[in-house]
Amino acid sequence: TDIPRLLSLCLSLHDIERTAEKLLSKPAWIYYSSAADGLGALENNTVDWRKVVLRPRLMRNVRRIDTSRTVLGRRLRYPFFIAPAARAGLANEDGEQCLARGAARRGIGYCVSSVASFPHNDISRAYYNELKQSGVNSNYGALWFQLYIVNEKTVTLERIEAAKKGGYKALVITIDSPVIGKREEDERYRAETSAESLSSSFSSAQEPPLSPPEDATNDEGDGPLPLRGVHSSTFRWDDLKWIREAWQNLGPIALKGVQTAEDAVLAVEHGIDAIYLSNHGGRQCDDTPSSIHTLLEIRRFYPWIVKERKVDIFLDGSIRRGADVVKALCLGATAVALGRPFMYSVSMGDDGVLKAIQLLSDEIETTMRLIGATSIDQLNPAMVNTKRLELE
Ligand code: FNR
C-alpha cells in the first residue's frame, strides 16, 4: 500500500479512521472501534461536543499564538496527549513505538497502556531515543504510565516497577474497570469465527480469531467472559496507600475514569494530582456521561476544583476536532487525550502518527485564531455557550 498517498488524502482524523478501517485486519478494527452494550456512552461522547458552541471574539491580533501548556509539571507543545490504549501491535508491527516516537518528536504527551504490545522498557527507550536523535527541544513532551490494578497484587507491583525503571514520569491509574465492559462486536466476531472454524469446509478460509494477548494477564478486550475477571474488583480508595508506597513519589498520580463530581472531590481529598474525566471511550459502563458533561457537573457542584486549579483536569472521549479540544480547555480542562484516532494512525506507521498529531494541532491553532485567543491561558468559559448541554 502506498502510505504517503493515502496520508496525503487524509484531511482530518475522520479520514484517518476511514483509511485505517481498510488497512486493519478485521479483528483489529473491531477491537479498536467497539464500545460497550448499546453504545449509549459512545453516543453521548460524540453528540455532546456539538452541544457546546464557541463564541468567537474578533478583531484581535492573532498572528502569533502559543499553544503550549504545562501538564503535571511538564510542558507540552500542544494541550493534548495520546490516551492509553491496549495492543497497538494489532495495527503495526512497531505498535506503541510509533506512538512513542511521534509524541517525542512533536512534544506532546503519551500515556502508555498497561497492556502494551511491547515491553514498557522498549517503548520508553523508543521515546527517549527519539528525543535525543531527532534534535527536538526535549523540554517539551511527557511519557506516562497507565496502571490497571489486577487481581494479582504482585502483577500490579511489577507494573509499577516497570514504570519506574522505564523512566515514566507519572502514574495514571485507571479506576473505571473493575471488570471489562461487554463489547458485543468483539464477542460477535469471536462467536462467528469459532462457529465457522467448527465447520471444516470453511475453516481454512477464515481469518484467525483475535490473537492471544501480548500481555499474559489479558486485561483488555481479549478474553471470553471469565477473563473479564483479571481486573481487581476489590480496588478501593484505601488501596492508593500501597500503590503510592510502591511508586515512591517518583512523579504525580492521576485517576483515570472519573465520571461524577462526587468522585472528583474524593480524588482531590485523597491528594491526587490530576483527575482524568473519561468513560473509557464508551467501552466500559454504558449510558455514562461524556467527559465534558462530567466537567460541567464538577463546575456546577464543586466550582472551586476548577477555579482554584486544585488538580490538573484531563478529559477524553470522541475528541476528533481542534474545536473539541478548545471547548474543553475553555471550560477548565488542563489537557485532553485521544485514543482511537491514534490507534488508527498507527496502521500507517510513524508517518500516520505524525500526520494525526499535525492535523489536530493545525485545527487547534486555527480555532484559537478564529475565536481570538493567542495563548491557552486566554481560553475561558465566556468563549463557549453550554446551554444546550446544561438543559439536559
Ligand atoms: C482503550 N482505553 C484504555 N484505557 C486505559 O486506561 N487502559 C487501556 O489499556 C485502554 N485500552 C483501550 C483500547 C482501545 C482499543 C481503546 C479504543 C480504548 C480507553 C482510552 O484510554 C480512552 O479513554 C478512550 O479511547 C477515549 O476515547 P476515544 O478518543 O477513543 O474516543
UniProtKB/TrEMBL annotation:
Residues 194-208 have a biased composition (Low complexity). GO terms for molecular function: heme binding; metal ion binding; oxidoreductase activity. Its cofactor is FMN. Residues 184-193 have a biased composition (Basic and acidic residues). Residues 184-230 are annotated as: Disordered. Keywords: Heme, Iron, Metal-binding, Oxidoreductase. Residues 5-389 form the FMN hydroxy acid dehydrogenase domain. The keyword Secreted does not apply. This is Uncharacterized protein. The chain holds residues 105 to 496 of 514 of the full protein.
